[in-house]
Predict the 3D structure of the following.
Amino acid sequence: MLQITDLHAEIDGKPILKGLSLSINAGEVHAIMGPNGAGKSTLGYTLSGRPGYEVTGGSATFDGRDLLALLPHERAAAGLFLGFQYPVEIPGVSNLQFLRTALNAQRRLRGEAELSGGEFLKIARAQANTLGVDMEMLKRPVNVGFSGGEKKRNEMVQMGIIDPRLAILDETDSGLDIDALRTVGHGINTIMRRPDKAVLLITHYQRLLDYVKPDYVHVLAAGRIVRSGGPELALELEREGYVGVAA
Ligand code: ADP
Ligand code: MG
């Protein structure tokens, strides 16, 4: 599904990703761990096409298409979803308006019919239900005044409604208490654990991986994948830290 080969990217002329290669197949959950400043968030932003993140070498294909040649909204329409480490607040725009606009824009680009208000509400209600989120929360402005945990729950509802094929989730577990962590884990499993979908979980800690079992764990250090393994690698890192793997 996603094939990254020798990817190099820089911000303001400063090289951050330095030859990163990673291959993700449909049906798989991959976790990326690594020390602060390693380039984890940069990888997510570069794949999603955020301005300012300049690719200087290598390639990334998504279902065989040149991902890096697509505009950000085309990448989203192709099925890529990026969850933010720090979700943004959008005053004046309700969650429901925002998500209906986003979903219909993606459907238009894919040549699918737009959803009516009623059709959209049905999907939103079903997703809110699945994730135990109150519909009232979806009527409020996007993330405004939400606690850290509420923002992450909200992000899961967004993901459920957008229904992407590949979700890149950046530190989705940061700032969550145990209940919120369970909700988020349940959300990821319910929405994304399917044979035709895949997940790239960027995380500092092993604890989210207790809820969302990864098939592969990678260590990103100094802009490259320096080690890959199974779930046991996350436990080893938790025990021993990045010293040794991140040299
Ligand atoms: P991680 O998510 O692994 O902690 P990041 O991808 O956020 O790491 O950052 C990687 C490196 O890029 C860090 O050295 C950071 O200081 C630098 N960096 C990130 N964003 C910017 C920016 N907007 N301008 C300049 N340097 C940046
Ligand atoms: Mg980060």
